Amino acid sequence: GAGVSQTPSNKVTEKGKYVELRCDPISGHTALYWYRQSLGQGPEFLIYFQGTGAADDSGLPNDRFFAVRPEGSVSTLKIQRTERGDSAVYLCASSLMAGVDEQFFGPGTRLTVL
Amino acid sequence: EDQVTQSPEALRLQEGESSSLNCSYTVSGLRGLFWYRQDPGKGPEFLFTLYSAGEEKEKERLKATLTKKESFLHITAPKPEDSATYLCAVLNYGGSQGNLIFGKGTKLSVKP
Q1: Closest residue of B to A6, CA-based?
Q2: pLDDT tens digits for range A40-72
Q3: Any B CB within 8 A of A105 CB
């Protein structure tokens, strides 16, 4: 079956611009997660959703970052006033339920802020 | 503070030369330990979940084991296609149900 998909695969933007990153989870998965991965590091947790609600957003670095999942399926990570330090690979994952099942990752979106 | 440390950072093997990767963890209460494989430019690919000390799981040339303080990923007679970064992550009872804590990974290179 289809895995987790993310669009775009690459995004280049200028400092100060707004970007949206999209994640389409595996069908039937109720939990959805966002991570950020810098070069040479493991993924770092940002936020996760159980259904439509954000169950834990403690990993969001500041209020420029926001994520939504309005219908409990597709999610969008939104970054306002981008900074060069936001450059990283943004990974999305999904699982059947949070806290129990393994998380399956998408290919990621590589964000470059010039 | 919950922490995951992987060693070595990088490992070079000849084809057929078996070895082990280490993942040491410090968590308030382990809900599960996960191993992933990550190829360059790709997202992590799930390999194993281990839940309790003494548990072992196998898949082809890979075998994962778990103790109360660490996990090992044993690679038997590796092939060049096993070259990748192997990530270890933990999920704990004390924190968020979604918050996987990852190590930095071990980059494995297998030469023919």
Answers
A1: B43
A2: 999 999 999 999 999 899 999 999 999 999 998
A3: yes
